[in-house]
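Quick question, first post here. What does this chain look like in 3D?
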Amino acid sequence: MILNSILLQDAAGNGAIMNIGMIVLLIVIFYFFMIRPQQKRQNDIKKFREGVKTGDRVVTAGGIYGKVTSIKETSFVIEIAPNVRITVDKGSVYPTAQEAAADSEAANNNK
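> Answer (accepted):
Ran it through. Tokens below.
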């Protein structure tokens, strides 16, 4: 009886190392397929927002297309129609509609 318990504990110890190895492997795979690409996309959008200049065409997170007419410290003034200007936060401006949709989807997945 005692010998069986000792043998079972020894087998469980080897299995624990395998389980830890599998968990580490899953974390590495998760990082390379989920976290790293999202960080790269966020860095690209950040670089775009820092490089926006007057006259660039942008789309807001709400789907409004326009042209940047002036840049303030934390916002952009965007002309969406002749003589129609709106002020939007820098965090809600994207270069294309595809990037706006992808960022919105990523934000919804993180909730």
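The first helix runs from residue 2 to 51.
Helices lie at 2-51, 97-110.
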